[in-house]
């Protein structure tokens, strides 16, 4: 097993304007796993913890090459600082052409190179083994940028809220495209929350029997803020008497989490003003029921 991330001083962390409790009772470190560990050991840890942080699963050079290509496509839109080249992805700090940037994101999720990145051999080999069946990559794949100083962060949620029309035997892969230190606001996980997510989903199933199948898929989204449990990460940790787990992610890492595991993001406060770039994508056995809404490329108006 890889050693746990060494504790180090952290800056104050915020999410959607709410400061996290930085005490040891409410903030801890994600524990990495060695991708070469025996499969049954990885399955056991995943079942227990609701996540696997697979350090160095991917070829780091391939990750950096994709980051370079992504930011090269964004040049000339005001997003990048003067002199920011290749994979740096340093934010300009000013206004940018949001329409062009948005259009480029729509195009990028359709790149064959992005599809190939998501289907790299280490990823598909891992999931074929985990599912004991050929894996399937959902067509709806998301690329996300975390701009420095942007107070808007992903609120606390679990993914099955958005995937109820298919199997719940699926996994999310979150892949940092480049290094993503805690300061850059990568994903953080609420410790032990896989069980809580399952309880919430079971309660919803009991209480939604009077709804049509279409309403059962969408009802929680209509009553939450974009499917989120809350924007207040501090209050949720207090309510659950649990810690948020953070990590210094590196190019080549992949985190796998269950559809019930509660996660969120924090504000990017990187001193070098680098843009956090990541992708979150979903895999399942090809033999299980698939959510048809996820069999189309992502677009801002797809309703999910």
Topology:
Elements (H helix, E strand, L loop, with lengths): L13 E2 L2 E2 L7 E3 L2 E2 L5 H11 L1 E4 L5 H14 L24 H11 L3 H7 L2 H11 L3 E3 L4 E5 L23 E7 L11 E3 L2 H15 L5 H11 L9 H8 L3 E3 L7 E4 L5 E2 L11 E10 L19
Parallel strand pairs: 3-10, 4-5
Antiparallel strand pairs: 1-2, 5-11, 6-13, 7-13, 8-11, 8-13, 9-10, 9-12
Structural commentary:
With 304 residues, the protein is of the alpha+beta class. The protein has a single domain (40-288), classed as Jelly Rolls (Sandwich). Helix content is 29%, strand content 16%. The chain contains eight helices and 13 strands. It has helices spanning 39-49, 60-73, 98-108, 112-118, 121-131, 193-207, 213-223, 233-240, and strands spanning 14-15, 18-19, 27-29, 32-33, 51-54, 135-137, 142-146, 170-176, 188-190, 244-246, 254-257, 263-264, 276-285. Strands 4, 5, 6, 7, 8, 11 and 13 form a seven-stranded mixed β-sheet that branches. Helix 1 links the parallel strand 4 (32-33) and strand 5 (51-54). The longest helix is centred in the middle third of the chain and has 15 residues, at 193-207. 39% of the residues are buried. The model has no long low-confidence stretch (mean pLDDT 94).
């Amino acid at each position: 097993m890889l050693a746990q991330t060494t504790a180090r001083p952290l800056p104050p962390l915020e999410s959607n304007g709410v400061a996290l409790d930085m005490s040891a009772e409410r903030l801890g470190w994600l524990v990495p796993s060695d991708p070469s560990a025996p499969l049954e050991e990885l399955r056991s840890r995943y079942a227990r913890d609701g996540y696997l942080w697979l350090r160095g699963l991917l070829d780091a050079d391939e990750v950096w090459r994709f980051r370079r290509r992504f930011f090269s496509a964004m040049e000339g839109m005001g997003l990048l600082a003067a002199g920011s080249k290749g994979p740096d992805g340093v934010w300009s700090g000013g206004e940018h052409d949001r329409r062009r940037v948005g259009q480029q994101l729509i195009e990028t999720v359709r790149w064959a190179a992005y599809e190939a990145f998501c289907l790299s051999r280490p990823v598909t080999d891992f999931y074929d083994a985990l599912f004991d069946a050929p894996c399937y990559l959902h067509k709806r794949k998301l690329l996300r940028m975390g701009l420095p100083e942007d107070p808007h962060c992903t609120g606390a949620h679990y993914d099955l809220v958005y995937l109820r029309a298919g199997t719940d035997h699926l996994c999310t892969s979150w892949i940092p495209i480049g290094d993503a230190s805690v300061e850059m606001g990568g994903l953080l996980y609420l410790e032990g929350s896989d069980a809580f997510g399952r309880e919430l989903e079971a309660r919803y199933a009991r209480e939604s029997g009077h709804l049509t199948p279409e309403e059962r898929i969408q009802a929680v989204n209509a009553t939450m803020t974009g499917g989120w449990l809350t924007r207040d990460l501090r209050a949720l940790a207090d309510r659950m008497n649990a810690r948020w787990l953070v990590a210094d992610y590196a190019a080549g890492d992949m985190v796998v989490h269950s559809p019930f595991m509660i996660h969120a993001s924090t504000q990017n406060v990187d001193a070098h003003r680098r843009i956090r770039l990541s992708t979150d994508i979903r895999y399942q056995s090809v033999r299980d029921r698939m959510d048809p809404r996820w069999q189309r490329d992502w677009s801002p108006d797809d309703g999910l």
